[in-house]
């Protein structure tokens, strides 16, 4: 797709990958719609971009709630137009064992990323299908392919997002719409500062795959949209390991279990 003059919705756009992706797409000529729960943060980024002569609109919404997603979509469709692409980046959740996970928090972890991606895609998909073009992109985690101990709710939500990605791709086959995913390894972002102890639960085997930055992920998202690529992994060591993890899940599960968080 041609990024220039495209309308692109970016969820989870208040910080990290989402914020950097919105900035990069706006500088590439897109009209970006920044969506997140934090209204002040996304409006600040939108103002920053507009002051540079770029096109940006902020719409606050809790995308884990269908009514919020529907309200956001109505605003975008009526005032701006039909998106050319959706970047489903919204996601949250702590690394917790099952007995440490409150049921309400488990629901929140499933709400974003899974329901946020499902609802956001659902509210825009019909006009996109009528047009017959567009890209729906999911930002996921390696834990969706190689789960590790000590993060059961987080991993389950990412598995759900991966399932949605693959099922949606099959569902939209032949429509002209493309379903893509970008899966980075550990991203150097405020997440680990805000979640003490999370970094220590990442298996040493996964840590060997390297880390990346919000800017690098944003560039990968832009490239994936432009080329309408299927599934992209970064950095390069994870890109090499991902097909091995899919082909040999049991040995990989053994390694992540042995090098991950151990029960006392």
Automatic annotation (TrEMBL):
GO cellular component: membrane
Domain Ketoreductase stretches: 6-185
Keywords per UniProt: Oxidoreductase
Record-annotated membrane-spanning stretches: none
Pfam families listed in its UniProt record: adh_short
Single GO MF annotation: oxidoreductase activity
PANTHER family: DEHYDROGENASE/REDUCTASE SDR FAMILY MEMBER 7B, DEHYDROGENASE_REDUCTASE SDR FAMILY MEMBER 7B
Family: Belongs to the short-chain dehydrogenases/reductases (SDR) family.
Protein name as catalogued: Short-subunit dehydrogenase
């Amino acid at each position: 797709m041609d990024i220039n003059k495209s309308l692109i919705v970016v969820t989870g756009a208040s910080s990290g990958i989402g914020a950097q992706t919105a900035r990069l797409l706006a500088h590439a000529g897109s009209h970006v719609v920044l969506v997140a729960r934090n209204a002040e943060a996304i409006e600040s980024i939108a103002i920053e971009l507009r002051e540079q002569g770029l096109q940006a609109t902020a719409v606050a919404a809790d995308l884990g709630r269908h009514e919020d997603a529907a309200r956001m979509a109505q605003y975008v469709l009526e005032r701006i137009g039909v998106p050319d692409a959706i970047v489903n980046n919204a996601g949250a959740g702590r690394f917790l064992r099952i007995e440490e996970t409150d049921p309400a928090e488990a629901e929140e972890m499933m709400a974003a990323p899974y329901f946020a991606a499902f609802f956001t895609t659902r509210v825009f998909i019909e006009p996109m299908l009528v047009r017959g073009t567009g890209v729906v992109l999911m930002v996921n985690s390696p834990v969706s392919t190689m789960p590790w101990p000590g993060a059961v709710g987080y991993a389950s939500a990412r598995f759900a997002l991966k399932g949605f990605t693959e099922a949606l791709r099959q569902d939209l086959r032949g429509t002209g719409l493309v379903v893509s995913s970008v899966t980075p390894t550990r991203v150097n972002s405020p997440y680990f500062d805000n979640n003490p102890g999370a970094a220590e639960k990442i298996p040493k085997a996964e840590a060997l795959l390297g880390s990346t930055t919000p800017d690098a992920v944003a560039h990968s998202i832009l490239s994936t949209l432009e080329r309408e690529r299927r599934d992209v992994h970064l950095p390069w060591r994870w890109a090499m390991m991902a097909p091995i993890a899919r082909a040999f899940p049991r040995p990989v599960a053994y390694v992540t279990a042995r090098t991950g968080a151990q029960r006392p």
